[in-house]
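Hey, can you fold this?
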Amino acid sequence: MAGMNPNRRRLLMGAAATGLLAFPMINIGRYAVAGASERTYSARAIALVERSLVVDMLFVPRIDFSPAGHSRPLSAQEIADFRASGINVMHNAVGVGSRSSALEFLAAQQGLAGRHPDLFELVDTAEDLDRANDGRRIAMIMGLQNASPFESIEDVATFHSLGLRCAQLTYNNQNRIGSGSTDRADGGVSSYGAEIVAAMNAAGMLVDVSHCGDRTTLDAIELSRQPIAITHSNCRALAEHPRNKSDEAIRALAAKDGVMGITGVRMFVRTEEPTDIGHMADHIEHVARLVGIEHVGIGSDADLNGYDDMPPDQYEQLKGAYTSAYAFREKIDTDGFDHPRKVYDLTEELIRRGHSDADIALILGGNFRRLLGAVWGARQPAEAPA
């Protein structure tokens, strides 16, 4: 338990005698949590989460489409929910289309972090991640889910200087760089896109292909000199969906030492009901069997509470922004992975399936820590002035 927050350590010691720890369910305002008034976790699950670096590679502070909804200060309850979540590192990224909207997003989210300096720490280097598991602050990695804002090759270095550490090449549709997952045809990474990938490698910026089409995904993996990420997607072998990745893509990713984050978005997890956290774990195990436990992690693709408790008008607005290929069902969240302590539930499921502590720690964040250290440490130094 070296490096653990003292308050958390005392909590664990108190739970050790019974082997179980009961967490009162979080009062999350308008978000109703179904079930009993308490959720009970084993001491082993609590200890694993508390001593691991827990990385969620697609996790936004708040899903809110109202004006300034993303940037307004967090409430006392939201702060308490963050502190109780077990998450140490969050990759905060949204889909944007223009350079100006990307700059606005970065400014708003950096402003949010600045308003809560006791809760968030903006990430610059991989070493910033290592300080995150002391239990005091959550490391926030700034990202974009669309590289369209890179209007020139030089923009990559510019955005890196502004704090951007990860960028998805395309969202769901074609841009100058490549094709998206819901495009009718996929021409792969363009010549301009190949230059963008090279510039991202040089800057030490992680390449993400979560929403990319199949050919674009494979091209990006081949073109990149550094390992890349699928930060938030699932396995098409288990759920046929255009946003999920083929076994071919997962093998290619792992061959370059990349990592894939499994998401709890319901239609990516299973195409029929029921859809629960066990089915999400099936995707983790599929990647592990296919390419090894070292290449899978978590990318929840939500905020702490998920989507299904959004205000009805915003919920419909969200669904209406995507094509019919997304195949939305009545619910978007996966059962059991739809509340602030969902990482503990996933840990319990992995324990139940017989995974070792070491392997669970890799899934929770060790694998993404390795990837980020490799990519960010590969940045080419700027040339000295002539």
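Oh, and this one too while you're at it.
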Amino acid sequence: MHLQAVDVVDNISPEEFKRKYYDTKKPLIIKDLAKQWPAYTKWNWDYFKELVGNQKVALYNNIKSDAYTPINTADDYKTFGEYIDMIKAGPAGWRIFLFNIFDHAPQLIKDFTWPDDLMKGYVKKYPMLFTGGQTSITHMHFDIDVSHILHTQFAGRKRVLLFPNEEQHKLYRKPFEVLSMVDFSNYYDADKSKVDYNKFPALKKANGYEVILEHGDTLFMPAGYWHHMEYLDSGFAMSLRAMQSSIGGKLTGVWNLFGMRSIDTVMKKTFPHPWYNWKQKKIARKAVEELSK
């Protein structure tokens, strides 16, 4: 893999953001965007536990889904308070995915401001909280609705690996899915790395970015970007999503949500082995094409 650092700014004008990052689909870290929000100092584990501690939430472990598993299937359930106690006690490879805490504590909406000067098209009904215990992992994927994302880290540190969408076949994308075949767990640690270049040779040619997010950092992830995240500390972040401005971008998101995912779910249930074998052949063929370029 060829990795470079993500550009970092304290602040940026809307004009420069659009010209250098939004239009070119290049990621960016904005250090001070969230520091003006009450959430920057107000949001913490105890505050969330007080507000929504009794709310049951779906938990996800670090096991990478296999070829037959429908995406987004929860591995366990706890109350939010029980979950917070667990991850505060020490390393715990469990995370909460797409929890709309704002449905249960709408007063939190007042604690941040939508950056309308940077982008339009926010899905303001669905700001999302992402929470993980130390050592938890979000495996390599791209967001199915292919929205632009402003992802702000509020507690703990998180290592993020990013790739543009056009690198998908070097990442061994599963057909009709948003997931990679490759396990990137601990990719940065030579003693623990599971990245197998012998099995996935095209990955050597993949060009991407690497960054560690800290408290208050806001990461701009352009639409369709692949991302793999590892929690270096127990922490949480909020994502603000903005639909693509183009009709083509919006239609791609609709197709992924209601067409691609539905087809994959039906085929996994109806013809799991032939479907898996077809995917394997297509993945291999695409990888060979990348290596031959």
